[in-house]
Every structure is written in C-alpha cells, then in structure tokens.
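re: that chain from earlier
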Amino acid sequence: MNIEVVKYELINKLLSTTDESLLEQVMAVFKKSNKKNDAVSVMQYNNELKAAETRIENGKFTAHDDLEVESKEW
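^ sequence. v structure.
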C-alpha cells in the first residue's frame, strides 16, 4: 500500500473518531516512536562507533552465517 494512502486513511480515521482513549494511545505510540528516532550527537555517534570497532577487533561479534544458523533454532 502506498504510504500516502496509509497517511490519508489514518487522518480520516483520526478525524472521525470520538474515542479519546484511542487518540491517547495513538499519541503515545507517536511519542514512543519519536524517542527512538531522536538524533544522537556527533560525539555520542563517534563513541558508539569506536566501541563497536573495539568489540570487532576483540572478536566479540557474530558472523552473518552463524547468525542465520542460530536464528533457525529460535
């Protein structure tokens, strides 16, 4: 489904509802989503990148092939 169609349908549903609880739940989802998408600072990004590189250098990672095998066991 086209993203614009989904947005339009959501807008129509939001405008037509009188269920305050539903609207509060939708708002909570948006707030939670926004927190996940908050931008990180350049310093934080660089620190996380350095930490990841260190883990890789120390062999603390899972190879793609190993991960595929592991995920089949879930």
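Residues 16 and 61 are 49 Å apart (CA to CA).
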